[in-house]
Amino acid sequence: MNTIRFLDLRKQYESIKADIDAAIAQTLESCNFIGGPAVLKFEKEFATFQHASHCIGVGNGTDAIEIALGALELEPDAEVIVPANSFIASSEAVRTAGLNVIFCAIDPATGLLDLTDARAKITTKTKVILPVHLYGQSCDMDSIMTLAQEFGLMVVEDCAQAHGAEWRGRRVGTFGICGTFSFYPGKNLGAYGDGGAVVTNDDALAHRIRMIANHGRTEKYNHEFEGRNSRLDALQAAILSAKLKYLESWTNRRAEIAEVYRRELSGIADLTLPVINLGARHVFHLFVVRTSRRDELQSHLKQAGIETGIHYPIALTRLKAYKVTNQTTASDDLNEQIISLPIGEHLSDSEVSRITHEVKCFFGT
User: Fold this and answer.
1) 3-state secondary structure of 104
2) Confidence of residue 330 (pLDDT cuts 50, 70, 90)
3) Closest Cα to residue 4, out of 302, 338, 359, 314?
4) Has residue 319 got a pLDDT over 80?
5) How far apart are CA 159 and CA 52, in angstroms?
6) pTM for the structure as a whole
7) The domain 9-104+111-241 is classified under which CATH number: 1.10.10.10, 3.30.1330.130, 3.40.640.10, 3.30.390.30?
8) What is the CATH number that goes with domain 247-363?
9) Most buried in the list 17, 88, 167, 303, measured by CB within 10 Å?
10) 287 and 261 Cβ atoms separated by less than 8 Å
11) pLDDT the model gives residue 219
């Protein structure tokens, strides 16, 4: 019995091998490895895809957040509100940017930022809300922007898992002052190494972000301030351009699989399916379900040759890196119950059927 992979990058590569190989070969032939036509091409294409005026390629998704926050030129004691259910990059970048992270609760139904708790955490030092479009689903950006405007806050969107996701027909990453993206290989749009980007409609902010990421300069040796070295390299940009034209079809396939899961697994006791917000275009970077028997289910699926994941087993507030003991920001039950089923264009219809069959068998339905 063949193993059903949680993520199969080899299968994806083989399906578009000619495009990828040509993109790499062209870059090698040009010998433009830092900057150059391939990077400019991808930045233009991704800005168009995101319906944004600017895209600035950077070294990775964590850098994207940190550089974006740095470009806002906030006071050192400024506070940034971050949901407690995310990968550490969301909060880590706040700290490495020299700012204070304030964790807020998440909605247990979606895992997304809880607006009521976010409002309660706002102080005179709060300057930024950093919503995370987790698992590929947009936060309620209308409500977040209303809250931000009420208190005079800026919004930086963490879109690392949400390439192409939308809120009421508008791409995520374009509501706030900027949006940050990761092109880690496992993302819906992934490179063959690290990579990231910031998108924005603010001309001045785009200019400063680009300078920060390139040693504080816009031209060689003319450094206006000390920046850093965080650039999307040309090989990764070429690979991303080759993949970008397939992203919509891959996203549609993810939605098809998610619909099968939702149809076939609905009504099972002790299995909670993802809640999709009305108005959100969910791109299903992950399909996360909940059960009190998570570890048993994962073991059963592993024995059946089906790989799964857990995103994320520990709330950020419970990590040793933070040791936040006086904040109740995420349900321990949520972190102990979540399990991610395989999803992606690499799955065949028969494999999806096999997954739903094994989940049903486990629950005796």
Assistant:
1) strand
2) low
3) 302
4) yes
5) 14
6) 0.97
7) 3.40.640.10
8) 3.90.1150.10
9) 167
10) yes
11) 87
